[in-house]
Structures are given as C-alpha cells and as structure tokens.
User: What shape does this take?
Amino acid sequence: MSPAEGAGARTGNVQGGVGRYYVTAEYSKPSDVTEFFPDVDFGVKTSHMFGQVKTAGATARKRRLGNGGGGSLYEDTDYLGYLEHLKQFGRRKTPCDLGTMEIFVVDVNDMNISSEEYPNPILTKYDGFKTGHIISMTPDNLVNQLPVVMVYGVTLHTGVSVCLHVFDVFPYLLVECPMKVEGEKDYVGELLRQQLERRLGINSLACLEVCEGETVMGYDPQNHSHTFFKLTFFNSRCMNAAKSMIENQFTLTSTKSGSIVFSSTVYECTVPYTLRWMIDRDIVGCGCIRVSGVTEVAASRRISRCNYELGCISNSIIGLPIEGDYEVIPEGLRLLALDIECISEGSKGFPVPEKDPVIQISTVLSQVNPCNNRAKPNPDQARDHGGPNEARGDIYDEVRIIFTLDTCAPIGGSIVVSFKDERCMLIGWRDTVNILDPDILTGYNFINFDLNYMLVRSRKLDCPNFRNFGRVLPSEIKVHDSMINTKQLGMHENKDINVDGRIQFDIYEIIRREHKLKSYSLNNVCSYFLKEQKEDVHYSQMCVLQHGNDETRKRIAVYCLKDSVLVIKLIHQLSLLVNIIEMARVTGVPVNLLLTRGQQIKVTSQLLRKCKQQKYLMPQIKTSGNNTEVQYEGATVLEPLRGYYDIPIATLDFASLYPSIMIAHNLCYTTLLPDPVPQSYLITDAGDGEVEGKDWMETTPAGKSFVTSKIRRGILPSIVEDLLAARKKAKAELKKCTDPLKRKVLDGRQLALKVSANSVYGYTGAVNAGQLPCLPISESITAFGRTMIEFTKQQVELNFTKKNNYPADAIVVYGDTDSVMVNFGVSDVGEAMKLGLEASKLISNKFIAPISLEFEKIFYPFLLMQKKRYAGLKWTKPEKHDSIDCKGIETVRRDFCLLVQQMLDDALKILLVQRDVSKAAKLVQDKVRDLLMNKIDMSYLVLSKSLGKEDYTSKLAHVELAKKLRQRDPTNAPNVGDRVYYVVIAGYKNQPQYERAEDPLYVLQNNIPIDVDFYLDSLKNSLLRIFEPINKKLADSLFSGSHVTQKKILAGGSSGFKGLGGFITKGYRCLVCRTVINDGSCYCKHCSQDEMKIAQIVQERQSEYQKKIGEFNQLWTQCQRCQESLHRDVICVNRDCPIFYRRIKIRKDIQELADDSISRITAQDPLDW
Assistant: This one.
C-alpha cells in the first residue's frame, strides 16, 4: 500500500470522535512497535503513552519487518493518525498543588519493593530493644522486600490520575500477655521478641509495643482491661508465620516465671493489612483523602502510568467525611467496557484460546461528566447505538472504539482500527487502554471469558507485553483459578485477575447476585431491564462473516460494540456503579474487595472501625470454613387464614426489625454474659452507685443474658444505630434533591445503608464460615422477633373490637417474620388505612425504642393461598392502587415456563384489578384450548436450567438432554455453565420425564408432539391455587368441559419413541373433505365436481398463505431493526428472544403449507392459483 493509500485509509471526522484506521504490519516480536515509533511511549517503562510523535518528513516511513512472516509493510501513517486521534481522549497532566491534594480513592492495594529503594528515614538504625520504638536494621541487614501501600485515585475536581506510595505501613497483629506475667510485661516482651527473631529471622519483626486493650468478646465486670503485645512485621510473610506459631500453643521459657504459655488467639488481623491501614487512618473505600507534604517520584524511579506519582508517609493522609463536596462522584472517573469476538478455525465448536484467534475487541469509554457541563450527544451515536440522551438525564460521555482483524467498513459514531495481525491488535488494544487510563474495567462475564481469553492468547502468541495494561509497570497481570461456593450462586468456577490500579467490575456477577432472573444471558438481562433486544450471532456463524468482506466484518463489529454499549447502559439504568461506590463508602471496604470477598468483610470493616474508637480488640476466630450453617429456630410464620378477601387488608410492618431489636435490647459481643451468669455478676457498680440485677441485665426469650445499655453500650447496636440514622438522613436529602447525579448517589447510599444494617444479624449467625460468629446473639434476635409478631397479633385482636367501638372485630389473617396482615372488617380503603395507622402507633408504644410498627400498605382485594404464597392489589394512597404484589407465586419464580407465568399474570390482573372472575376463568379456558390445539408459541413452553459441573446423583432432564445433544453435534452442545433450553415431549406411558426433554428447535423442525398433559398439570397446579379460594365450582370447570375435548396431534414425529407412528407413511387427503387420496391429487372424485367448493378452498389457502407470509415479514423486519440493518439476512439465534421460535415456526408453516396445498394445486391446475 502506498503512502497516499495509507493516508486515504483514514476516514471519518476526527474531531467528531469517528475514524477508520488500517494497521497492516505483522510484528516479528511484541516489542517491534517501539522500533517504529521511538518517540512514542507505549507504556512499557513510563507513565504516559504519548510524547511528541515525529515523522521522518512528509513521506510516511515504510519498514520491512525481519524474521519472515511474508514481509508485510507497516504503514505508520495509519497508526500515527489513530494515536494522534486518541490523544484527545487521554488524561492530561494538569498542574496540581502538591502541598495539599484532595483525592478520590479508586483502589488500594500493596506491593513489595526492594529495601534498597525504600526511603531511608523510614528504616531507622537498630539500637536495641526499646518498648514502643521502631526496631529496624542497619543497611547491611536489610530485609530483601518491604511493603508499600499503593493508593490509586483521581483528583477530586480535575479528574487527573494519581498513584500514591505510602511507605511506613507494615502489617501487625496483637497477642494477649498471659495474666500471670502481666507485672513483668517489659521483660516478657523482650523474651517474645528474641524468640520470634530466633525462629523467623532477625529481619522479621519491625516493632513490638506493649499496650492495654479489651477483647470484644463478652462482658466481664471484674476485669475490663488486659495487656497486649502489638507485633509489627516487615512484611506479610513474616506476620503470617508468626500468627501460625502463636495459634499452635506458643510457649516461652523464663528464668523468672518458668513456662509462659500464650493464648492461641490473635487479634486485629482478620482483614488484609491494606484495609487495616485504611481503618487506622479513617479512610473508606471510594472516599476522599487530603494529602499534604508529598514528594513527586523522580521520572527515573516511576513505576506507574498515572499522571502523578507521589510518595508520602501515613501521617500525611487524612480521611475526609462523606458529605458536601466529598459525597459526589468526581468529574473524570472513567469506565471502560470491553467485549471480544473470536472464531473457531478448522472446527465448528466453541472457540478455545489455545488455538482460536480473537477477531474483534470493542472498547467503550464512559466518563462521569457533571450535569451542568454535559457534552451534547453525537447524533450518529444516539441513532446507531443509543448514545447519551440529554433529555434522559445521563451523566456520562462516551468514546467507542472497535479493533478488527482485517478490514472493516466505517461505523457511525465509532473509531474503527483494523489490523492484519492478531498480536498487533492485542498490543493496539493494550496501548489504547493505557492511553485512555480508565479507573474501572467492566463488561459482561468479561473476567472469566473476555479478559482471560485475551491473556491466554497473548501467551500463545508469545506476546508477554500485552499483559501490561494495569497502572503499575512492569508488573504482569496473572490469572488464578478458584472455585467459589456461595448461597446465592452455589459452587462455580471463577478467574481471579488483578489489574493493578484498575477496578474489575463484572456486572454479570453483580446481576446474578442481586436479581432473580430466568436467564442471565446479556440478551435476557437487557430485555428485562432495558426493554431492548440485540442480535445474537452464533459462534459458528462468526467464521463465515469474518472471512467475508468489509461489510460482513462490520456486522460483527456492530454486534461486538453493542455488547459493550449495553453494559454501560445497564450500569446506568441499574445504578450499579453508584451503588457499589456507596456500599464501599458505607462499609469502608475498597470496591475490589467488595467484589471478591463476599459479605463478611463488610461487617468486619465496620466492626473494626467502631472497635478502634472504643479501644476494643477483635479476635480471629477459627471456623470450619464450609457454607453449611448451624441451624437454630428462625422467624415465626403465623398460620394463614386462606381465602379470597374482597375487602381491604392492612399490612403492618416492623421497620428494620432485626437491627431495631439489637439496639433496643443491647445485643452485642461486648454485652454478652457467660451462661450461666456467675453469682458474682448479679450486682455491679455502674459508676453512680449500685444497680440491681433486673436493671443491668436482660435475659432474652432464647435464654441468653446481656447487660443493658445502663452498664455498657454495645458496639453492634452503635453500628446499626449509626447506619439507620444515616439512612434516614439520606432519604430526607433525597426527597429535596433535584440534581440527577446526586439523586442517584443518595439513593445508592440509602440502599447500601439498609443492606449493611440488615447484614449485621447474618454476620453473627454465620457459625461455620463467619469471621466472628456468635450464636447467642442471632438466636436472641430471632427469638425476640417471634415474640413480637405473636404479641402484635394478640394486641390487634384484643384492642380493635366492636366492644371498643370499632366497626368489627379485627382478625390477623397472616403474619410472616416482620409483618402482619389485618382484616379490620371495613370496606373502604381510606378507613382501613386510618385503622392501620392507629394500630401501628398503639402497638409501637408498647415496645422499647427504636422498635416501630409501621402501617405499610393495603391489599384490596387480597388472595391468600398458604404460607409464603399470596397476591394482592397494593394501595399506598386511598385514591388509586399502585400495582399487583405477589409472593411465592409462579409469576415470580424461575423454575416455570413462560406459559404458566403469563397465564397467572394475566389471570391475576383480571381477578385483582378488573375483579371479574368469569372473565379470568374464560381466559384460562381459552388458553387451555389453544394448548391442546397446538396454538401456543413454542417460546411459552420452554424450560431452562443451568448445566453444572458436579456429578448428579439422579437423572435430571436438562443434564440428560445435554448428553443427547453432545451425541448429535459435539461441537455445538452446551458446556458447563450454559443454560440448557428444553421442552417436554410426548412419550409412552410412565416414561421418565428426563427421557422426554428435547431441544425446542429440534422439536419444531421435526414436528415432534409436546406432552400436553405435562403442561396442563403445571397450569392446573398453579391456577387451582388461585381459583379455589375464590370459587371452587368455577375452579373445577377450568380443566373440564368442551374446551378440553379436542386435541391436535402432530404427525410425522421423529423423537426417540415413535410408537405406531414409526410405521405410518405419508399420505394425501382431499383439500375439501379430507378423504384419503392415493394418487396425490388435490380433490377426491366427489369434490372435484364441485367448482364452488374448490374455488373457496383455493381462496382460503391463498389467504392463509399470504397471512403467514405477512406475519413472517413483520417478524423478519423486527429482527432486522434489532440488528440495525434492513438489508442483511437475519442470522440471530437468541433463544431468550420472544419471537425467535415464532419466526422459525411460521417459516416452517409456510413451507408445509406450500408443500401440502399450494404445490399440489399449482401442479394440478396452475390457473387455479
């Protein structure tokens, strides 16, 4: 390609964020790119990707690469143009006051550096043991590696990236001094130091301090304070070794006291030491810090790509409160969504990274932009991919880049960068990430698939420098396999990939954890939350499109880009980023730890912070580590009075029940008394004189005893009280706030505060897998909850009676955990609301503050089926109802087909909103008839389940079908983790269901009859639960009568079991009277004489054929709009799409109609047609 051609390959409006670049070189080794552009920094050694790009004159340089490879040419004008274009989106190093900087904390982690590079003032000269002083080493005895805390963030007002080295942070733990030698603590401390250095090495212990403290576990009125040794180590390896020694019966030998046995419990080391440091400095995840007295790291010693790289000590850093200017998300915070496409070369199976190339990488950069300074959306972006919409109140700017292997046609609103070599493309993507410098990497299952795939490819292609797209150089990103077992997700395989300085924010894992959906494919998730679909190209089709032309590769590129765009949309729509930031702020935990460490660390962080304030020490408790919890009696569920209530039912709900119980009854580790309570504890001194036992101690309904707040205020009640107060404040501010971004922040905060307050109870009950379990606390909380529900029922029915001048005797029809449902016997919604408010105030006054019973809503009408199963029309205002509220019904359950869910939903709307029982019954009867007559769309009958890795003890339908699909086509069979879609087909009598599970597409293509009885039973069980409480006679008529006497059986089945149908050959019938005809003609001898009937039949067939063609064209056009082109064939295989099976079915109906009727009529008499 000539220089002129190279220059001409760049197309599009550069200033408008669009462009197209071709890069045609094939690198002989990964570092070749630096040979072409020696003046361009590609992020291999320093922080900035761009210097001054210089070209050798006006003519582009051509350089032939050595080492074979066909001698391809590298047209650097193309890549230089791309780099120049990309420059405008990179972060710029704007001047900052290094005297005082305010930084938004993105991530905190640690790294080890050589002791020779460590600042000398930190390592003071060793001068013998002195309690409370640093014990360090002479230069000759320095430990090889020392830790540095790395704080990554952006400046609060300018969005400049910062890497902050904090040098004087060392891991530590505490161990209790044995009581018998507390009087000789300095002497024992010296012995302890000598023993540790003898066993771990002289360069292990940095500092030993003697301090006073109190364990958080239990209340002892006679001995509050104890002596502890705080052991600070030069690195985590030394600390972990010391911890292991202490936990295994650590003993000292003293000439004064003989054998000194230490407790096996260690303290204050339950979290990573970086989080421990944040707690000590009052820094929270995604909070703001003020740094003073920093030193900028010299260019020759820089190890990060951030705009500023600074060094300081801990005392230079102050954590700032989350309020005012420090509570917003800073301008310039950057997300980068990515998605890859790959093809399977030489086989039809799913691509594997060891042998199959990456062909495209989409990258969408989204940056927080204040609402009062928001850039107007690019019209092309908004049209092509649903870009930022000012009217919608978006707060983000976007840049879209697509990397393609081989050429690609231009895409509106996007930068297209094409490569001839996969290694070049990977390096180009790496350089782009480093230029754009995102704070957060995101995608949909991108950690386990996309990112991991690229990393494996880079290793196979001998391209190790690809792995340098973190913020630290020259660290290499590594992949670790792990198995995670959680209650929400069960056992599943996971990849651990740490990209230094950048948060890995995989929204697939978050949505799986927080939402119950039928399918977690990106298509289904977007359909559910965004109400939009996307084209789903099967991986077997990718190879055909890739080896086509510019336009076919553009189709892949649009598809790939949309995946990344949808991820950004989901993040905005569900406020996923805002919510995780607020959770980090509320709990104090960095986002990366929140995403990888589960629920326990949230409460542990809050507990450690409160312990620090009140000088308590938190022990590390050994647990079994499995996820099976010790069972104890849970909440009360009152026996429901089943029935259909056509009068208002008031719902009274305890506000934050379990947190309120903890506060009201002072339930905490620090207030727990021994069981049984020693006699010497029964009277104590509270400071102002003696307090009698009943005033200082309370025994819970579970038989556990705690001291009251008159003696000691518990830590857990204090934590929960602060969280609830903060939530109340956030909700009050939310009502007044008008700024869209701040509203999202406040809503995310109140949600995080609610979740955090409610999770404290679960934290105490996690006996086998928790960090600080305490069964007496969790047992007592649920016991109080049970008595309160029963007391509430008693009080409602005792006070609201005709005898007390109320309209009727109130009856509690149901109660569950924290709410009761009351029938006050009134027919007016407004009157029921007044009575509900009166009852809530009356009963709240009988409980200890802050326990509060609140009126929540009215159900009118209300359908109560059994425990945990009910539905009702919700009213929160007397003028108009809100919505239908269901619990435990198949409309909100994932293990039922769409037919059951849709019919229940439609029936409930008619029953509860229109209140027309007859109309609801007719709807059911019509749908039953349609099912029997094969008029139900296949998508409504599909069931799906995820294919797990473990061996199943019993045969399951989806597992057996997966085996069957592997036999038919091993390359396209579902893999572990995939969802298996199936329908239940007809079979012989008593044939197991797992043998009758079949692929829906296979069923459609082969005319296999479904098992109508199976689906009828599913409908019957669900619908009868709704109709029987309303009208038993009507319920019996739903599945009996004339509408169930007809059944259409599909012919020509080809399932595993054929029965007599296997011996039937295809015959022809008269198109008029349906008499069997042996010669294949259209009409029998009798009907062939009736020209009027023949004309009528021809007209009917014509009309039916044209109707089917019209339906198919509508569906086809709808699919083309989804794929954003009205000129391409539809190849989408999205089985979560509601029209997928309908499109296949109608196309097959057209073909059958043409074969059975049209072709016969045309063959017999073309003029008839």
